[in-house]
Protein: Mismatch-specific DNA-glycosylase
Organism: Nocardioides caeni
Amino acid sequence: MARRTFTRAELESFRDAEVPDLLPGPGQQLRLLFVGINPGLWTAATRTHFAHPGNRFYPALLRAGVITEPIDPADGMDDAQRDVLRERGIGISNVVRRATAKASELSDAELKAGGVRLTELVARERPRVVAIAGITAYRAAFGLPKAKPGQQPETIDDLWSGAELWVVPNPSGLNAHETVESLAAAYREVGVAAGIVT
């Protein structure tokens, strides 16, 4: 079956749209919350996180052992694919909910407001691990210009309601410094911390 395509105009029509968080249902524990910077236009069009065909998120999760079967969300994710994530205790959110063509279109004020919303989400859902995909957005959202990738210091634990906080590489195809292998290595670390990967 041919993969769905969008014209530039169709994608642009999804600018500023929001994509709902993907969270486990009642009775399912949220062990690992991945947090993107904000939805891209393809993600908004399909209402599926990290959906652009050039995004390496799901291949890296599979390689890392965080998921055990392939997910290809470019045409949108069906309930069975969502359940693969939910049943493993995986959720997905964004720092900023507004869709843009590039993350660079976001203002510092939007990122800071998104940081507040994210801490409220974490306080409510209480994941074991939060993994924010993108060091630049993390620095701007939380006013931490010297933060480094990896597990964040315990001194900010109060902000995260006891969750371990990690900053992992952004899986966008625009992030040319990363490969599926290097992403998988970082995602495996958070999977182990969350108790999903042994």
Notes: The two ends are 36 Å apart (CA to CA). The chain has one domain: 8-193.
